[in-house]
C-alpha cells in the first residue's frame, strides 16, 4: 500500500492512482485477494467491499453448508454491505444428487444455526412487510431456526440493488417469506408512501427458478400464490427455469 523505491523510481500505491485505474485493477483480482486487501487498512476496506459483496453465491452442500446465517447477521449489523449486492445465487446440491433423479435421503431440513440473529433487527424488517404479529413472529422464529425460505426472505429484503436472483430447489420448496418480501415490494397503498418500506427492486431484471421441487418430501407445497409475487417485479426482463426461459 505504501510507495517504495524500485530502481530509484518511487512506485505508487494502487489507492493513489485515479479511481478508474483502481477499479480496473481491483476488478481483476480474485475474491481471496480482495478479502486480504480489505484487511490492510480502513481505506482499502471501503474501496474493495463493493466488489467483495457484488456477486454472492451460497451453495448448500450436505457436508459443507454455506455460511448463510453468518452472512445474514453481517448484513443486519451493516446494511450498507447488502446494498452492494447485484447478483445472488442460492445454489445447492439439491435433494437430488448426480446423476439426476437419484434421491438423497439425507437432505438437510434446516440451515445450520451457528450465530444468533437479532430478534429486534429481524422484527424491524418483518414489520415493513406485514402488520400481522403472527406472521412476524413466525418469520423470525423460522429464520432463527434455519428455515431456508425465512432466511432467504430476510437476505433479499436487505438487497435494494439486486439485479440477478437465482434459486436452486433447495431454497424453493416453500417460498412463503420470499413471496411476502416481493409482494410487499410490488403492492403499495397510499399509506405506504409515508412509511419506511422494503426495496422495490427496480434494478432486478432476471430471476431464475428451478424446474423441480422436492416431490418426495413435499407432495403438496402451498407455493402457488406465494410465488406469483415474483412475476410482478416492476422491471423484470427474463424469468428463467432449468430447461427454459420466459422473456
Automatic annotation (TrEMBL):
The protein's name in its UniProt record: F-box domain-containing protein
Domain F-box: 11-63
One Pfam family per UniProt: F-box
PROSITE patterns: FBOX
InterPro entries: F-box_dom (IPR001810)
Originating organism: Fusarium oligoseptatum
